[in-house]
Amino acid sequence: MTLDRELMQTIIKRYPRSRSAIMPLLHYVQSVSGYVTNEGIETIAEILTIETAEVSAVATFYTQYKRGPVGEYHVGVCTNTLCAVMGGDAIFSALKEHLGIDNDGVTEDGKVSLEHIECNAACDYAPVVMANWEFYDNQTVESAKSLVDGARAGNPPAPTRGPNTLVTYKEASAVLAGLDDGRAREGVQAGAPTLLGLKLSKEGK
Amino acid sequence: MSKLTPVLSAHWDEADSFTIEAYTRNGGYTASKKALAMDPDAVIQLVKDSGLRGRGGAGFPTGMKWGFIPQGDNKDHYLVVNADESEPGTCKDTPLLMANPHVLIEGCIIACHAIRAERAFIYIRGEVTHVVRRVNAAIQDAYKAGHLGKGIDVTLHIGAGAYICGEETALLDSLEGFRGQPRLRPPFPAIAGLYARPTVVNNVESISSVPAIINNGAEWYQSMGTEKSKGATLYSLSGHVNNPGQFEAPLGITLREILELAGGVRDGHQLKFWTPGGSSTPLFTDAHLDTPLDYEGVAAAGSMLGTKALQIFDETTCVVRAVLRWTEFYKHESCGKCTPCREGTWWLVQILRDLENGAGTEADLEKLLDLCDNIMGRSFCALGDGATSPITSSIKYFREEYIAHVTNGACPFDPVKSTLFAGAVK
Questions:
Q1: Which of A91, A95, B223, B408 is the most buried (most CB within 10 A)?
Q2: Pair (B66, B196) in one structural domain
Q3: Chain B residues close to A203, C-beta within 8 Å
Q4: B158 → closest Cβ in A24, A117, A121
């Protein structure tokens, strides 16, 4: 896969100053290569006319930029306090055993990678699992196993609050580079916890 | 009469609530039209009069912040919206943007007009793909409808997993294309912010609250809340409760009232400890059920309103385990710029890990408090300060539980009992 330099220029043009485009460009590199490659760093440095060390410094600071291949479906289990206590720890250890990989590991078939993640702003849906940064709410050990089994078989279940089907890691990275995949209108507008206060107020409570 | 006051959340139950059609149908983009016809200073005055305070945690008066931007300086001004919601327990901006991104865009138009900015940036965390889609589509639709592009532009910037970028100056460095590390202040962003230009950094909920204030007036907003904490806000209830979720209520509501609405702590269990505004705010216990959840009430009781992230833990939860996990988070997220935070959080984790595993001593508690004392207030930003909150407050309220780990030689709790699916696991 090669990087589309013309597309990279359109990303740069979003900003008043070109250097601001480093982050979307790194997401874009991941959308093409699946992780931040040396070639990607060199290309970004070249078109922004800065040193490769400056791009590397940014790439290594943010945990979403991966310096080696992750799975086609990157699964993150929230193990920050609230999710951990509510079942995240149990889910994470069950998935490690089920997949035979450790934190930051990738299955041999390259389909699934696993990472313990920090709070993902969905605490009212705890325990939360993310796949390619889409929400899988109110997970159990069983539902999380079905998620990774489906992903390995090529038919993962749809996210709870997300598009109608789970996109791949590369496809999600393109969205994070700010590229439109036309799927914004798919999926629910909100889950039940989001709507609870509104519902109660309509009931006069 | 309901204790709840849905304004931001008023139309979230409409299946297409996130579309421009739904937003317009419900009166969207009338406030920006009204504001654009007003003198910018009058808009700032109206927001000042409303009493709106920052909903990102610090509670700084929004109108006053806007008023700090120098005028007639012939410089570009910027509005930067902090949508990097990452404080543990905080989950209000993410569902807001999923259900109604247009209210934020309309708020951006009004705020840009007020501070004489031609460009707003929305900095959204990178771990929420579908929210990114919704916000991106909303911006495009707002351009197509002519709300943007006529003197005011909005650019979406997507983060990549760094809690520290929720700190406003780290966010600005990140947006400029650097590692997200906080800056020394002064100068404050209002003088030298993004690209060293006057910049307002506001939270999603703060900016999203503005359209309704323009449409309904300062007096209406003042009619909700308490003496110094005006208006309504999103309270996010999570954890060991029967019905977690978002509750939009006037400032000053109590946890007891919210818990009543949520069907209480999960059946058969009791409240043990909770956070009023995320993990960086000192813990509360069942003694604080009637503390008014406004800026002053929570501060008077020894904590902070923060992001109104009410994380509820029942008696099955080991407080040492909970605090250790938060501390591991702060250690991981410390950007490394300031020594007290970078090194201090590392040592806090070592000591807490020993304590949780039953390998600690009672003297470790004093060592923890001493370390906290040497971290607090000694770094550029508040991350290190936040890291000390769960530790000092938990030792204050649950010292015996720490000591029980020491005398027991192990954690006395069964983690299975705390899980949501405890019944199924048995």
A1: A91
A2: yes
A3: 2
A4: A24
In a domain, B424, yes or no: no
Mean pLDDT, chain B, rounded, equals 97
Mean pLDDT throughout A162-167?
A: 98
Is A112 exposed, middle or buried, given 0-12, 13-18 or 19+ CB atoms closer than 10 A? buried
Domain-ending residue, one of B195, B222, B249:
B222
Strand order in the sheet with B245-250: B245-250, B232-239, B309-314, B271-275, B284-285
List CB contacts (< 8 A) between B17 and chain A: 189-190
Final residue in a domain of this structure, among B289, B314, B339? B314
Q: Which domain holds residue B270?
A: 232-314
Residue B378 C-alpha, separation from nearest chain A C-alpha, in angstroms: 23
Check if the beta carbon of residue A35 is closer than 8 Å to that of residue A27.
no
C-alpha to C-alpha distance for B124 and B127, rounded to whole angstroms: 9
Give every strand in the sheet of A73-78, ordered side by side.
Answer: A112-117, A73-78, A129-131, A134-136
Q: How much is the pLDDT for B423?
A: 53
Alpha carbon distance, N-terminus to C-terminus of chain B: 42
Residue B172 belongs to some domain of the structure? yes
* Three-class SS state of B233: strand
Answer whether residue B424 shows pLDDT above 60.
no
Among chain B residues, CA nearest to A78: B88
Give the pLDDT of residue A186.
98
Minimum Cα–Cα distance from A22: chain B residue: B177
Interchain CB distance below 8 Å, A193 and B425: no
CATH code (residue B248): 3.10.20.600
A158 DSSP assignment:
P
Same domain, B130 and B258: no
Place of tokens 């003694």: B287
Q: Is residue B43 predicted with pLDDT exceeding 90?
A: yes
Q: Is the peptide bond before A127 cis (omega within 30 degrees of 0)?
A: yes
Structure tokens at B74: 């012939």
Q: How far apart, in whole angstroms, are the C-alpha atoms of residue B195 and residue B269?
A: 52
Q: Which residues of A touch B415 (CB under 8 A)?
A: 85, 89-90
Name chain B contacts of A15, Cβ cutoff 8 Å: 155
Residue B357 CB-density burial (10 A; 0-12 exposed, 13-18 middle, 19+ buried): middle
CA nearest to A30 within chain B:
B160
Residue B274 has pLDDT above 80, yes or no: yes
* DSSP assignment of B290-302: TS--SHHHHHHTT
- pTM value is 0.97
Report the alpha-carbon distance of residue A178 to residue A85 in Å, rounded.
Answer: 34
* Three-state secondary-structure class, residue B317: coil
Q: How high is the pLDDT of residue B391?
A: 98
User: Helix (H) and strand (E) counts for chain B?
Assistant: 18, 9
Interface test with B, best of A74, A119, A160, A202 (most B CBs within 10 A): A119
B277 within 8 A of B350, measured Cβ to Cβ: no
Number of separate domains in chain B = 3
The residue of chain A with its CA nearest to that of B175 is A20
Pairing of strands B309-314, B232-239: parallel
